[in-house]
Every structure is written in C-alpha cells, then in structure tokens.
Amino acid sequence: MTTVTVQVDNEQNAALLEKMLKALSFVETVNVDHSFLAEEPKGSYQKLKQAIDKADGNDVLTHIDDPSKWQKDIRDEWGIN
User: Fold this and answer.
1) Contact between 30 and 18 (Cβ < 8 Å)
2) Interacting residues of 35 by C-beta distance below 8 A, sequence separation 6+
3) pTM to 2 decimals?
C-alpha cells in the first residue's frame, strides 16, 4: 500500500477531490484533515451551504406547512407588520 498526501487551495476543491477519490475502486481510504482551514466562505451561497451542511439532517425547513403564514408569524415576532 502507498500513501499519497495532497494539499489543495480551498475547501470546495478539497470536497470535490475527496468525492472523486472515494469513487475510485482501488482507493482504500480517504482521510481529510480540515485543521488547516482558516478562511470563511466568501459568498452568501457558500455561507448558506455551510450552515445547511452543518445542520443535523437534511430536513431543515420541513416543519413549515404554510410558508406564507410562517413568514407572517416571523414578521409578527419582529414587530415589522
């Protein structure tokens, strides 16, 4: 067995490379060390994606049955109505 160490320039590329390596049949394990990551996501999309990825499960907003009523209730809480 041979071990290969790779450094990439950002977390997005690291995630892509990790998925690609895991898809290869001859790759036994893929270990990712996130300890060197210090930069924040730059765009709103990346910040939102990171928050959703960190959330437990994929059903973040499934409890909302009526989006219009939910939004109205949120505005009522803020006193914006």
Assistant:
1) yes
2) none
3) 0.42
Cβ neighbours for 81, distance < 8 A, ≥ 6 positions apart: 72, 75
Chain segment 27-80, per-residue pLDDT in tens: 888 888 877 655 655 777 888 777 777 776 666 677 888 989 988 888 887 766
Which residues neighbour 52 within 8 Å (Cβ) at sequence distance 6 or greater? Answer: 60
First-to-last alpha carbon distance for the chain, in angstroms, is: 65
Alpha carbons 24 and 10: distance in angstroms, whole number: 22
Number of H helices and number of E strands within the chain?
3, 0
Give yes or no for a contact between 30 and 22, defined as CB atoms under 8 angstroms apart: yes
